[in-house]
């Protein structure tokens, strides 16, 4: 008998969907979280990272020996570093220098080269530098913010998985918004199955700093974002996101990052207003890449 062993790339996706047991309290609702930290490189970004590289290869946009460039705040960079290692590309990642030490170390462990911009320049500055490097012929930008292969990964994978795992009973989907790839792809799929499914996006309140999600200035709004695909946008405070993140670890055994805490906080707030709902929130990464910040106390 010949055993077909999977490659690491084939282990991306098909993540667990689990029920919260304590945080929702006494309710008729079912609050579920999708554990995207179970992906090989530890986040939901494994899906679009692999999608952007493999689909670019199929189109002939990139080929062996090319240098790839991407602006990232962390999770996409780690995922792209992994995907580039799998497929054999040189990977240059540009990120704000206030990203966590764990994220930087993970990227270099996969062999990526890092270029840091200041906290003040932020992701906008990182995106501008990536495009200027591409214009100078130093590599090819995948551009997760404008690349349709980003939401396509979630339309083909995350959305169908959630629909199947809930048996088509999902009523509300909650996701933090960074590049917006997750919410765009999942919304498109779920609305095709049932237009009444409510799509809830999360952004930080003015002044809040939640890793991985942004309130984008109009001129930097991701090109893949389509406002009509989101039914409600929730402004999340940093304090509530962090406190829910800590409670998830201590009361549910789910160790995740701050944006995941925010998504679950929004799901729990929704649950207090609803009855007999099936609410799914995305746990986009694991908490171990935030330990050096002291956010877990």
TrEMBL record:
Pyridoxal 5'-phosphate binds at residues 75, 178-182, 259. It comes from the Bacteria. Pfam families: PALP. The keyword Transferase applies. SUPFAM superfamilies: Tryptophan synthase beta subunit-like PLP-dependent enzymes. PROSITE patterns: CYS_SYNTHASE. Its cofactor is pyridoxal 5'-phosphate. GO terms for molecular function: cysteine synthase activity. It catalyses: O-acetyl-L-serine + hydrogen sulfide = L-cysteine + acetate. CDD domains: CBS_like (cd01561). Residues 10-285 form the Tryptophan synthase beta chain-like PALP domain. GO terms for biological process: cysteine biosynthetic process from serine. This is Cysteine synthase. It comes from Azomonas agilis.
């Amino acid at each position: 008998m010949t055993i077909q062993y999977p490659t690491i790339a084939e282990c991306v996706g098909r993540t667990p969907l689990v029920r919260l047991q304590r945080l929702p309290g006494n309710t008729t609702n079912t609050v579920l979280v999708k554990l995207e930290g179970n992906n090989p490189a530890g986040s939901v970004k494994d899906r679009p990272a692999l999608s952007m590289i493999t689909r670019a290869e199929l189109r002939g946009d990139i080929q062996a020996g090319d240098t790839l460039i991407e602006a990232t705040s962390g999770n996409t960079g780690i995922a792209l570093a992994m995907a580039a290692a799998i497929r054999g590309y040189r990977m240059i990642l540009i990120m704000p220098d206030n990203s966590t030490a764990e994220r930087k170390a993970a990227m270099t462990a996969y062999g990526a080269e890092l270029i840091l911009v200041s906290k003040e320049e932020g992701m906008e500055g990182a995106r501008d530098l990536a495009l200027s490097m591409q214009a100078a012929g130093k590599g090819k930008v995948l551009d997760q913010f404008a690349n349709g292969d980003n939401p396509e990964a979630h339309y083909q994978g995350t959305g169908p998985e959630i629909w199947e795992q809930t048996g088509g009973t999902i009523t509300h989907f909650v996701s933090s918004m960074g590049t917006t790839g997750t919410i765009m792809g999942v919304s498109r799929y779920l609305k095709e199955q049932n237009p009444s499914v409510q799509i809830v996006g999360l952004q930080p309140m003015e002044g809040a700093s939640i890793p991985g999600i942004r309130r984008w200035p109009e001129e930097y709004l991701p090109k893949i974002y389509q406002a009509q695909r989101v039914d409600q946008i929730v402004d999340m405070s940093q304090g509530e996101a962090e406190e829910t993140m800590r409670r998830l670890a201590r009361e549910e055994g789910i160790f995740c990052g701050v944006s995941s805490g925010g998504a679950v906080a929004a799901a729990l707030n929704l649950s207090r207003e609803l009855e007999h709902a099936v609410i799914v929130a995305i746990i986009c990464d694991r908490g171990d890449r935030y330990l050096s910040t002291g956010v877990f106390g």
